[in-house]
């Protein structure tokens, strides 16, 4: 579903080059649920933006859902769903339902399929009682459920979420998590999410990809991640150690990847 | 695209602003009409207009301010580049330019009703401005207005795209405002500009926004030539917009993570 090889992106900041992402290689198979971790500024969002065709990579080869994201941005957009936790794709002044209708037209979903899909999503995400409320009046939890629904109306085989649970309360968070888990298990939708919430990772992701300093720092299962640090540790501890250990010099003190992670290509 | 309807509805939410705008346009129309009446009384036939033409022109110009967005802006793009929300526009299966064009057409359609009709009606009642002569003019006039909106969008979209390169687009917006109000014919009809300045002003794209559709209404120009002039500038500006959009995509930095 995703094939990245030697992916790199540099930005020019006040005349000097900054490598936001460098030599990043990984693959995601159809049906996987992958969590993407990394400290702030590690290159996660840049990676997501390259995967969705918003940013063009400076180096490397990338294929998402069968397309080169930069060349076929709009074709790719029809095959993927995207949710940015910190931004809204919904129309601020319109009722939620009208936003969905616009999404339907934009993604060319026929009325019958749309109706059926919307009914399903309304039921599992519990949207019915605020479908007619303008988006600006929704609570964050309601809005995020709306965002997820909007990203799935065209039934994409790949869903990419950038911090979907940020700022949500415990109940809303659980609701979104349950939904994503079921979506992956029942419909077989491939899900890639970035998060700082390790609860998301523990409950949902069978596989974790850790990006640090723009490079792949770890790729494996949650158990393997935990096993990196000796003793009985929580996943928080393991991740904190990984982040800290890479801080002084990413080249020499990089943590070794787990012995044989399932689908490391780097 | 149905986005046009959304643009219409979105701007219809702000009906109080449109009402205030229509009122302002009407008052300015009346003020400017008296200035032009004074001017044409001393210099009858100036620029090929008679007095009735001049007064009609002034109310038409006021009516164009809304839909042609003569004072600039009207597009969310610079704001969305500044906040990084443009990332979402690019995650849609639609061209950035067409996306904003559809919304802008909706905006213009709404403002024709809310801000163009009232000053024209008041002008007709108070000063008795002339209706267009003949069915040819009636048919060409809406086409000319639509083309003027396209030219206006083409220009404003280019100005908005500059926000991909500069952090603050306000300076540019002010330059655009001055060029547009002066060279569109809003301040004074371009027909009274003398010599080479007049020639130049009438050849620039801004003329297609106010002067040319007014001339089509007044019947003081050849319809075919006027529409071709507008279509030419619409194509040039939209083509340039598409080209610069591609360049902007390569240059893009999403702000705010």
Give keywords.
heterodimer; A: 266 residues; alpha/beta; Rossmann fold; 6-stranded mixed beta sheet; 3-stranded antiparallel beta sheet; 24% strand; globular; disordered C terminus; B: 257 residues; mainly alpha; 11 helices; 72% helix; transport (chain A); ATP-binding (chain A)
| CATH 2nd-level architecture of chain A | 3-Layer(aba) Sandwich
Please report the number of helical segments of chain B. Answer: 11
CATH topology of chain A: Rossmann fold
| Beta-strand fraction estimate of chain A | 15-25%
Mean pLDDT across the residues of chain B is 86
Sheet of most strands of chain A: 6 strands, mixed
- CATH level 1 name of chain A: Alpha Beta
Helix content of chain B: over 70%
Transmembrane segments (chain B): 12-40, 46-65, 108-130, 136-159, 171-196, 216-244
InterPro entries (chain B): ABC-2_transporter-like (IPR010390)
Organism (chain B): Planotetraspora thailandica
Keywords (chain B): Membrane, Transmembrane, Transmembrane helix
In summary, what is this structure?
Chain A is of the alpha/beta class. Chain A contains nine helices and nine strands.
Describe the structure.
The complex is a heterodimer of chains A (266) and B (257). Chain A is of the alpha/beta class and 266 residues long. Chain A is built from nine helices and nine strands. Chain A has helices at 44-51, 73-79, 96-106, 111-125, 140-152, 170-187, 198-204, 222-227, 235-245, and strands spanning 2-13, 16-28, 33-37, 59-64, 80-84, 158-162, 190-194, 207-212, 215-221. In chain A, the strands form two sheets. Chain A has a six-stranded mixed beta sheet, with helices on both faces. Chain A has a three-stranded antiparallel beta sheet with strand order 2-1-4, with helices on one face. In chain A, strand 6 (158-162), helix 6 (170-187) and strand 7 form a beta-alpha-beta unit. In chain A, helix 4 (111-125) runs antiparallel to helix 5. Residues 249-266 of chain A have low confidence and may be disordered. By secondary structure, chain B is an all-alpha fold. Chain B has one domain (3-251). Chain B contains eleven helices and no strands. In chain B, helix 1 crosses helix 6 (96-127). The model of chain B has no long low-confidence stretch (mean pLDDT 86). The chains are: A alpha/beta (266), B mainly alpha (257).
């Amino acid at each position: 579903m995703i094939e990245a090889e030697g992916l790199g992106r540099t930005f020019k900041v006040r005349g000097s080059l900054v490598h936001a992402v460098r030599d990043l290689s990984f693959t995601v198979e159809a049906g996987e649920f992958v969590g993407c971790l990394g400290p702030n500024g590690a290159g996660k969002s840049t990676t997501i933006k390259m995967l969705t065709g918003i940013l063009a990579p400076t180096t490397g080869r990338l294929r998402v859902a069968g397309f080169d994201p930069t060349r076929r941005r709009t074709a790719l957009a029809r095959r993927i769903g995207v949710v940015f936790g910190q931004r809204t794709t919904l129309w601020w002044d319109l009722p939620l339902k009208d936003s969905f209708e616009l999404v339907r037209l934009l993604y060319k979903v026929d009325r019958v399929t749309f109706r059926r899909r919307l009914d399903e999503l309304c039921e599992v995400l519990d949207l019915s009682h605020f479908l007619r409320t303008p988006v600006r009046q929704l609570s964050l939890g309601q809005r995020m459920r709306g965002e997820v629904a909007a990203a799935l109306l065209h039934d994409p085989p790949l869903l990419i979420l950038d911090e979907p649970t940020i700022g949500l309360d415990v109940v809303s968070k659980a609701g979104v998590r349950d939904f994503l888990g079921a979506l992956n298990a029942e419909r077989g939708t491939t899900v890639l999410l970035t998060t700082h919430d390790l609860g998301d990772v523990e409950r949902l992701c069978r596989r974790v990809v850790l990006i640090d300093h723009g490079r792949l720092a770890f790729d494996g299962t949650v158990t393997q991640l935990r096993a990196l640090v000796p003793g009985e540790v929580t996943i928080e501890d393991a991740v904190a150690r990984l982040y800290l250990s890479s801080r002084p010099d990413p080249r020499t003190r990089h943590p070794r990847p787990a012995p044989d992670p399932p689908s490391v290509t780097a | 695209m149905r986005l046009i309807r959304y643009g219409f509805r979105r701007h219809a939410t702000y009906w109080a602003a449109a009402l205030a705008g229509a009122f302002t346009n009407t008052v300015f129309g009346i003020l400017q009409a008296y200035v032009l009446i004074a001017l044409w009384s001393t210099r009858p036939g100036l620029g090929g207009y008679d007095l009735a033409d001049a007064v009609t022109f002034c109310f038409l110009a006021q009516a164009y301010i809304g839909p042609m967005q003569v004072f600039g802006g009207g597009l969310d793009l610079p704001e969305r580049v500044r906040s990084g929300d443009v990332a979402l526009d690019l995650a849609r299966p639609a061209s950035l330019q067409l996306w904003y064009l559809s919304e802008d057409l909706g905006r213009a359609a709404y403002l024709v009703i809310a801000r163009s009709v009232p000053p024209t009606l008041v002008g007709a009642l108070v000063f008795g401005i002339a209706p267009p002569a003949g069915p040819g003019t009636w048919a060409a006039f809406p086409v000319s207005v639509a083309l003027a909106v396209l030219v206006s969008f083409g220009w404003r979209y280019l100005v908005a795209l500059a926000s991909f390169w500069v952090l603050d687009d306000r300076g540019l917006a002010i330059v655009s405002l001055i060029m547009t109000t002066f060279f569109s014919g809003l301040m004074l009809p371009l027909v009274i500009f003398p010599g080479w300045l007049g020639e130049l002003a009438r050849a620039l794209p801004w003329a297609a926004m106010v002067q040319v559709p007014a001339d089509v209404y007044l019947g003081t120009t050849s319809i075919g030539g006027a529409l071709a002039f507008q279509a030419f500038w619409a194509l040039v500006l939209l083509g340039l917009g598409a080209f610069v959009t591609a360049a902007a995509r390569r240059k893009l930095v999403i702000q705010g993570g």
